[in-house]
Amino acid sequence: MNWIAVAVGGALGAMARYAISTWIFQVSSHKFPYATLTVNVLGSFVMGILFVVIIERSALPVEMRSLWMIGFLGAFTTFSTFSLDALGLWQNGHLFMALLYVLATVVLCLLAISSSIWLTRLL
Question: Are 113 and 47 in contact (CB under 8 A)?
Fold first, then answer.
């Protein structure tokens, strides 16, 4: 059953990532990877909430971990795309933007997950 939950979650996460990335790509500059940054920060924030709700509080069945934390968020966020975007910026001579992107991704994702854990624990 966990395999099915991961597969369903993965399909939903991939579709959500595609929808958000498509929308952000249409409304933003194409020079900076805003779409990847956004899904990674959102994914980190949601991961913090799910960690508290599923793991710490057991407010949802543990089986939901496979669906949401492994399947959905595993497909929604992706380190490989982040790496490719950063490398592309670097290789195209945008070293400052590449460094800014790497720093922004790491810092914002850590802030997102820590703040969502803190906020969810308050509720």
Answer: yes
